[in-house]
Amino acid sequence: MPARPIDLAAVATRVLDRLPSGVEGDVRVRSEGWTTMRFANGHIHQPHVEESRSVSLRVAKDHRLATATTTDTSPAGLGRVVREAVALASIAPVDARVGPFPVDGRPRPVRYSRATASLAPEAVGRIAAGALEAAGADVEGQRVSGAVHAGSQTIAIANTSGRSVSGIRTASQASILVERPADEPPVSGWAEGSHWDAAKLDAARLGREARDRMPRTAPKAAKPGRYRVLLGGAAVQELVGFLAHLGFSGHGEEEGWSCLKGKRGTRLFPEELRLTDDGRSPLGLPAAFDEEGTPKRRLALIDHGVVGPAVTDLVTAGHLGARLTGHALPPESPYGEWGPVPTSLILTADHGASPEELAKILGNGLIVTRFHYVRIVHPARGVITGMTRDGTYRVRHGEVVEPVRNLRFTQSIPETLRHAEAWGRERGRYSDERGVQSVTCPALVCGRFQFTSATLF
Amino acid sequence: MDDVVRAALRAALTSGIAYADVRVLAPQRFEALAVRNGEASALTATSGAGVGVRVRTERAWGFGTVADPSAAGARTAARLAVRAAHAAEPTCRRPIAVVPSRGPENGRYETRLRRNPFDVDRAEKLGLLRDAEKALHVGPEVKSGHASMQAWEQVTRFGSSEGVGFTSRIVHVGAGVDATAAAHGEVQRRSGPNSFGGDYGQAGYEFIEALALGERAPTVGQQAVALLDAPSCPSSAATTVVLATDQLALQVHESVGHATELDRILASEAGFAGTSFLAPADRGSLRYGSEGMTIVADATEPNGLGTFGWDDEGCPAVRTTLVDRGRLVGFLTNRETSAALGVPTSGATARAGGFDRAPLIRMTNVDLQPGDRSFEELLEGVREGVYFETNRSWSIDDKRLNFQFGTEVGRTIVRGELGPLVRNPIYAGMTPQFWGSMDAVGDASTWHLWGIPNCGKGQPIQAARVGHGAPAARFRNVRVWGG
């Protein structure tokens, strides 16, 4: 659903024009329109249509930084946000290491979908209805849940150094769960995907995949312990997303809790493995620049197994004495405290295998469809924990022999990638509901993966 | 009922719309101040305002929202809600039933506070944070000190097509400190008075002053440093653990609060957060835990983050018993799920994360009631065990059964005495067995009402601020290890 148009760049200019002499600043003016059709028990139960607009102003006065935001874009509202930010900055502690607002680089346009940006709620409802039907929402004993999201964010960013950029990004995402809840234990199948063009999301295909992936037999108990695993794309994206924060945040590097601190420039992972952050790539969900307006560039985070640099924003670049990489989050975001994070991740590897070949390479082990409720156990070691969910299978001699009940893993992400033995030829595209972070990645065979307990279903 | 609410209701009540409610939030303010290593890390003032409109046809809900609190914005939000409902309707087969809201025509609720946090001089607030942060740096091993405080103010005007209306002004505050220490390849973090940015309450600035961050900070810094050389938590397949009040609050949140949300139980959240091991028929019969386990959801509790006059469906705040002496007796409900359960009134737990989010079943203040043991008496019965304090890591399966929690610090317990610190302590279990193994519950002197500011649920995701009162308590035969 498109938000009502306003001239965002003009608003940004009006904000900067109001700054008092001697005060520097950067401003983000956003206009967003999103529709979510959330379904459960076979019908859409939480349809949500949203139009929003906001202004985020960060100012620097004598190396004192502060941010104020508002949803009020009237002249009075803009005046208030300027006064608020300046008043906050006047009492802020000095942060002398932060450099001037950046100006270099001009972002080139990236791919987006005009049709996705103007998708009506009725159209998103039809996509969700198609997914429900394909997943078998009407089949007796079957329960279908999930969501379809689509929309866009238009943003203009300007600063007092002379930078002025604007752009649009679009995103669509769908996830579908099919269950037979009366089975003992219940069985389920899952599929998810993202695309910057909702026309290419194909939620109905995801519905069919989720239905077809549902096990035909009851899951058996599996003992916790160390296994060889074939992690499906949805599981790999979770690991990669956490590694982006735990291993590549400039803030983690600065504070010492990055699990890759001290390992940059060394080969830690298999030579075939490459992890890039590429906001411009249409393989992910493209965005032309970060929240400071710095153009997105392709950055090698893991290059043929060698660990690359931590990413930065204005503050962490100043603190680390490093170059600006263009990974700023909104300064008012609660995640801003976590510092800059790669948000356009693409995992690639040479010599990808087919799903059948991956099962053969796995030999004896477990296939994991996806993880649930993953949380950090020890950041500096990159250790996380979580559950398997919606399809875990035992493989013997390269053949799937039975579904198994869910297990809890507690595992280091760097260790998982270090023991990667094979990866899929095909890659899936995954993201959060509004495409703030996207991960494009294949399935992956890992030789050592620790499951620490089991649950009842 | 004011003009903006009326404008939205008029625009919403078009053909086929059986019900509408409107929330105008103006203002919705947030202030975050933080100091890291003597430098400002986040000084942010956020001021938003907007309208959220929810409508219901015979079979479908719809929600629309616009960041514009004017009458024009309200009409737009209403039209979006109507379109959302009509878009959903072709997939909906069953009529929607709800219980009455029993809300007021013109209610008023306001947080009682002595010092409005938004009126306190920011220099005073930053001074408090600077001093506290400085006090964390007890040695060169402390690589990062961090002190922060937050304040929220939310003024809501609610009106529904059933004639229910109220105005509320709710203020939440919170603050905390944390230190990250590093040496010889080890990194440890310690927080106070809790992780998740400290402790929070519905109160004024006096709540932050009472936290005494400056006095607390040196101990936090010292423990962060001490943890660097502390031994790893010993492993045991079945030992006795004593959980501090802060960790037990999160245990309640994850393994009771979410598990008793009736929308999860009825599979409304199945595709995202998951369901529950509970079923509606378990009410009144299921053994959740030991006799010492009584848990209430109390939206009337003073100072709680989950305290209000009426929920975001206009239902009056209530106190509901969820678990009575170990037996499941209630759920967290809203108008629709109460009707599905066949009970006459809502549990009044429909809460929205802002004007731009639809109300969902959320925890209010979900509290474990205190028992009769002093902290020393909890330890007395322990020949060998581990004490866990301040959550660091939390994860639980999608039916809220298998959990694993890590805390910032542990201490061995030997013959009834707390021993030295151990690092990276983790415990794990299965929900009913774990609560069934609770053999002693701390008294009121060990009990504290905590605020948790970041409970995530729903799509689009929304954060709720919820309260949890918990004492310390003792559990037998628990698996523990060092992570």
What does this entry look like structurally?
- The complex is a heterodimer of chains A (457) and B (483).
- Chain A is 22% helix and 39% strand.
- Chain A contains ten helices and 17 strands.
- In chain A, α4 packs parallel to α5 (203-212).
- The longest helix of chain A is centred in the first third of the chain and has 17 residues, at 75-91.
- Chain B is α+β, with helices and mostly antiparallel strands.
- Chain B has ten helices and 23 strands.
- The radius of gyration of chain B is 23 Å and the shape is globular.
- The termini of chain B are far apart.
- The chains are: A alpha+beta (457), B alpha+beta (483).
What's the pLDDT, averaged over the residues of chain A? Answer: 96
Average pLDDT rating of chain B: 97
Gyration radius of chain A (Cα, Å) is 23 Å
Oligomeric status: heterodimer
Uncertain segments of chain A of ≥5 residues (pLDDT<50)? none
Biggest protein-protein contact in the assembly: A-B, 98 and 83 residues
| Outline of chain A | globular
Record field, number of beta strands of chain A: 17
Strand order, sheet with most strands of chain A: 3-2-1-4-5-6
Query: Helix/strand-derived class of chain A?
Result: alpha+beta
- Number of continuous helical runs of chain B: 10
Q: What's the number of extended β-strand segments of chain B?
A: 23
Low-confidence spans of chain B: none
What's the N-to-C terminus distance of chain A? Answer: 40 Å
Envelope shape of chain B: globular
Distance between the termini of chain B: 56 Å
Q: What composes the largest sheet of chain A?
A: 6 strands, antiparallel
How large a portion of the residues of chain A is in β-strands, by DSSP E?
A: 35-45%
| Proportion in β-strands of chain B | 35-45%
Helical residue percent band of chain B = 10-25%
| Largest sheet geometry of chain B | 8 strands, mixed
